[in-house]
Amino acid sequence: MKKLIRFIYVSLLAIFIFMSPAYCLSLENWDSKISLDRSGTLHVIESIDYDPKGYLNGVFRTLNVNPKEEFDLVSISVDGKEISLADKPKKGDKDVFSLSKDDKQIKIKVFKPGKNTFQVKYDYKIKNTINTGKDFDFLKYRVYDKTKDKLKNFSCEIHLEGLDKKVETLSNFDFKSENDLSFSTREADKNKALEFSLIFPKSSFTTYKNHYDLEKQDYIKSYKEELEKNIKKDEERKIILTYGIQGLLALLLLLFLFRYKKIKKKAQASSKKLGHLMPLSPCLASFLTQGSAYANPALFASLLDLERRGFIKIYEEDYITAKSHKKKKNYIFKKIKDDGISKNEKKLFEILFENSDVFESKNINSERAQSPDSFYSKMTTWINSVNEELTDLGLKPEGSSHYIYAVLSIFVAIAAITNTGFSISIASYKALPSSIFLFVLALYLAYNFLSINTPLGYEQLDYWSKLAKALKQTAKAESEIDLIKSHKEEMLLYRIALGMDYDSNLKFAEAQAINTSSFLPLYWIVTKNKNSLMQESISRSFTGSDSIRGAGFSPSSSSGGSATGGGSTGGF
After folding, report:
1. What sign does the CA torsion over 228, 230, 236, 238 have?
2. CA separation for the pair 481, 21 (Å, rounded)
3. d(CA 134, CA 213)
4. Residue 404, pLDDT score
5. What 8-state DSSP symbol labels residue 526?
6. 76 touches 110 (CB < 8 A)
7. Cβ of 49: how many Cβ atoms within 10 Å?
8. Which of 110, 208, 302, 436 supports an S-S bond with 283, CB 3.0-4.6 Å?
9. Which region, left, alpha or beta, applies to residue 340 given φ > 0 means left and ψ of -120 to 50 means alpha?
């Protein structure tokens, strides 16, 4: 069992690590201004806004060039301030850059330590960038190479100096004028490059050194075929990845299905139906029908029930608060006896009374405010004891494995829907139906895991849910139910445990002719808002909130381009 859970955990962790974007650097905005003169010299000015997403020592810019091209760095500036070239900069140096190059690459490192956003402007020239064939001139300009960094917004303008004819383009450029082009995009895929290919009329440039002995149509055809082939390969790889993830998710769901059948079979054999309503305390009835979501009113009802049964006595007194000097109510709980109380009530006595026979609401409030983690940890042990008692009575299945598998199924559903989005993002809908199917199946399994119960639990949940529904209805409807009429005081406590408000409880008491002066007399003392002063005060002591329904027992409630080759940018 432990090995299976470990395998599932590691598998899910691997899925999320693999599928989640892991950008160490975000390129927020990239703006390129490019001009190409008649001599074949490319002048590039790139302004890039970097967001480190954490501490970074600097960024780098790599340009791919060939031996015939001549590179000339004009300037580098950071946030509008020009920085200088350093011979051997070290980690931690600030506002300097280094330059290294060989026959194929030029690497610029800008040292800008920190974790705040900043802008770097690269100004450089590359000569002899034009390739020529027999009938055409050709420029292949890759501004952004494949990189782990994310490019959000990109814009580029290219000015072609002195050309008397319009160029052809294999990229999505807009022609602003006869010799100007522009291009922009958002959210560039980190697995793709931004590449511009321009074809010029023959002899557009006066000098060049890069020569290709190719016919125009053959070269264009070859380039297009290569481009389409790469796009197809990239899409096929992503589709295979999508199906691979789906296969792993399907395997996990199959394992979950086997576990569901085994856990359900064990739960079915753990108890038998009674055929009638099982008597339960207000606290147990509330936890059975509502879970621990309303543990606060269930606790309050449990204290009132303990007084009704003679185990404690509740008093009240006025006191002045130390900080605001306001008059408030302090409720004193005195232990009369503890023989014959239930398992969860014993735990409640241990927590509240400890080694004393008395506890006070103002002291509970102070303990919660001063040590919330410790206090709520103790209250959690009480909640657990209530659930354990329901299990002992055969009203809940043993163990928590069905909850664990429900959570794991929800994780699988999230992975499946993420995979669905991945399928849409690559414009491939082949894997979409199966992704949606896995998502729905995972949620269905999660629901079924959470719904696992014993036969007695199913039966009593149905009985008590119907009774709770009747108790929440109008006073007229309530008075027509024999069970409510014959156990009217207990039913009032059930209403309190279910989180019903003061006004409706008062109407219920009047409809059932309950003597409020003798039964729970402190409960009926109201505030200016016509709510139970006692319930608000005790709720504030235990949770820090006056709300009896919304508050719970938890602390929460109180990269770039080169003229002829690939380019990249990143952080270091």
Report:
1. negative
2. 59
3. 6
4. 82
5. B
6. yes
7. 16
8. 302
9. left
The confidence score (pLDDT) of residue 307 equals: 92
At residue 350, the 3 state secondary structure works out as helix
pLDDT tens digits, residue range 373-422? 888 888 899 999 998 898 888 888 877 777 788 888 888 888 887 776 66
- Token pair of 448 as six digits: 């079924």
Instruction: For residue 502, report the phi and psi dihedrals to the nearest 5 degrees.
Output: -60, -45
pTM over 0.70: no
Read off the tokens for 132: 């020529």
- Residues 342 and 311: their CA atoms lie apart, in Å, by 12
Q: Are 98 and 73 in contact (CB under 8 A)?
A: no
Per the prediction, the chain carries an average pLDDT of 77
The reported pLDDT for the residue numbered 215 is: 44
Q: What are the percentages of helix, strand and coil residues in the chain, rounded to 5?
A: 45, 25, 30
Strand ranges, E, within 149-211: 150-160, 168-169, 174-177, 180-188, 194-201, 210-211
Q: 519-544: b or e for each residue (b if 16 or more CB lie within 10 Å)?
A: bbebbbeeeeeeebbbbbbbbbbbbb
CATH of domain 24-214+565-571: 2.60.40.1730
Lookup: tokens for 321: 């608060």
CB 93 within 8 A of CB 572: no
For the chain, what is the radius of gyration of the CA atoms? 37
Rounded Cα distance between 543 and 557, Å, is 7
Average pLDDT of the segment spanning 24-51: 83
Give the Cα separation of 277 and 460 in Å (integer): 6
Tell me the angle at which helices 432-451 and 401-425 cross, rounded to the nearest 10 degrees.
160
Q: Which helix (H) or strand (E) holds 451?
A: helix 432-451
| Residue written as token pair 């280094």 | 98
List beta partners, residue 56.
Answer: 114
Q: What is the pLDDT of residues 105-138, one digit of tens each?
A: 888 889 888 888 899 999 999 887 777 666 667 7
CA distance 541 to 333: 13
Q: Is 135 exposed, middle or buried (0-12, 13-18, 19+ CB in 10 A)?
A: middle
Long-range contacts of 307-313 (CB under 8 A, 24+ apart): 307/520, 308/489, 308/493, 308/519, 308/520, 310/336, 310/337, 311/335, 311/336, 311/337, 311/338, 311/341, 311/345, 312/336
Pairing of strands 26-36, 42-51: antiparallel
Give tens-digit pLDDT for 2-18: 555 555 555 555 544 44
Q: Report which of residues 78 and 430 the model is more confident about.
A: 78
Considering only the C-alpha atoms of the chain, give the largest distance between any 2 of them, rounded to a whole number of Å. 109
CA distance 122 to 48: 8
The CA distance from 475 to 506, in Å, is: 10
Q: Is 58 left (phi over 0), alpha (psi -120 to 50) or beta?
A: left
